Amino acid sequence: MKIIENILKKIFFETVEKTYGKEIAEKVYIQETNNSVFGDYQTNFAMITSKDLRQAPRKTAESLIENIQNNEIIEKLEIAGPGFINIYLKKEFLIEMLLKVENEKYDFEINTDGEVIIDYSSPNIAKEMHIGHLRSTIIGDSIKKIMQFMGYKVIGDNHIGDWGTQFGKLIVAYKNWLDENNYKENAIDELERLYVLFSQKAEEDDSLNTLAKDELKKLQDGDEENTRLWKEFVSVSLEEYDKVYKRLGIHFDTYNGESFYHDLMKEVIDLMEEKKLVKESEGALVVEFDEKDNLPTCIVRKSNKSFLYTTSDIACIKYRRENYNINKLVYVTDQRQQMHFKQVFKIAEMLGFNEEKAHVYFGLMRFADGVFSTRKGNVIKLKELLDKAKEKALEILKERNSTGNLEEKAEIIGMGAVKYADLSQNRTSDIIFEWDKILSFSSNSSPYLQYTYARINSLTKKSQVEIKEEIKDLQTDFEINLAKMIVKFPSAILKAAESYKPNVLSDYLYNLAQTFNSFYNNVPVLKSEEEELNTRIYLCYKTARIIKKGLELLGIKTLEEM
Questions:
Q1: Residues 320, 197 within the same domain
Q2: CB 128 within 8 A of CB 384
Q3: 0.90 exceeded by the pTM?
Q4: 83 and 57, same structural domain?
Q5: How far is 382 from 378, CA to CA, in rounded Å?
Q6: What residue numbers bound the domain in which 507 lies?
Q7: Cα–Cα distance, 366 to 151 (Å, whole number)
Q8: Are 224 and 326 within one domain?
Q9: Mean pLDDT of residues grouped by 10 in the chain (562 residues)?
């Protein structure tokens, strides 16, 4: 099934190419209208090419309309305002596309050769996952699911923070202030307590920082005891993280953390020196960029010969080039790392690592009075949030006298509410943490969509209609509007993928649910005559399939009944 915008674009492209040439035809762009008064789709081609064609936009629009041949897709074309061309679809074409949705493979017209590698979640070892980890984890997972659905081979990598100065601090704290009983009961909780304790004590006694550097150096040199402790810290941390990931339904293909690339970093420095990209500055090695790049000087090796995150990320790219057939590399991190990845991508380009790369950054989740900080002990643990979400969902189910396995239902509804509260936001916006907002069960929420899905299931069962892949007519505006919304599903997926914004898909699903509820409240579905009943139940059936699939792509499960 082709996307409607692409079908229309081809019609306009062919007409423009014959009239004005291929170069001008490349500027054809089709988009959905925001208001059905202006048709189903529209193009501003006449306006954006007025300078190229040296004629008034309305004259260009008139010429296009005159030259577009009759076809089975477009009902009519109208010129609006300074030169918009509004496009109205034929009902027969709409029905044809409706029957194809979820029955035919979608043709997104993309290059899916090679692997897409997505870095996301990436918690630091020896610290419990907290609310600040939520965005990277679920945004990255949704992007992975969307791209897999589109036909890409996707590798989800949890680039864990398992190397660096924090381990020297942890080893000092572990050797001096360990609570053995607490460590046996909850190892990661104890490690986090030790990390905070070290920070507090080091503010009063700076010699602890020197001691931590010594322990880190021993670890880097392969000291047997420190290496054993480091491996233990990593193991107990991953064991705890996996509990959270399991609840969220998230799976990673690889867990290649910073330590994985440690031995490759010297090779990267050697390669930079070979290509004369680095210079010495006060004992350190730095990369200076061209003035036009507008990037600050980047340190790639400290004066003590230790490496930095930049070096690690370049080594990571080098490893992936040598071990994968890369389609694109995607990094899902918060907005504070924008400059870091601009530097990394530029250095990679200077090294000839020219694969497509994208930094998918997101706004911070913060309290109204500041950001989260493990060091300050100012965090809300992610498992605590998930437990509260389940607890609230369970309360609501009991209030509504729901039946069945309430614990299982509450878990599905709660996890969905947490995910949707984040994924329905534009990822580039900051989110102020508020319990009521995060756990909202209001109209634009996962429970609302889950309930709509369950409601449709009940309706189709009650109708006792055998679903047939055929529709003879769409008689009311409510039916036509719902059909038009359903056939936009593949376009919503494509737009979400192109922008790396799952909220594009969540917005679509919410609009679909609202359109369905408007249809249901205004059309007597179950009281219809046979032919009308078959058509209307079919529309219900297709809506349910799209809601289920769309929520799956957001990492959210559905329930057959609530």
A1: yes
A2: no
A3: yes
A4: yes
A5: 13
A6: 382-553
A7: 35
A8: yes
A9: 97 94 96 92 96 94 93 96 96 97 96 98 91 93 98 97 92 96 94 93 94 92 95 96 96 94 93 96 95 96 88 96 98 96 98 97 77 57 91 90 93 95 93 74 87 95 92 94 98 98 98 97 92 95 98 97 86
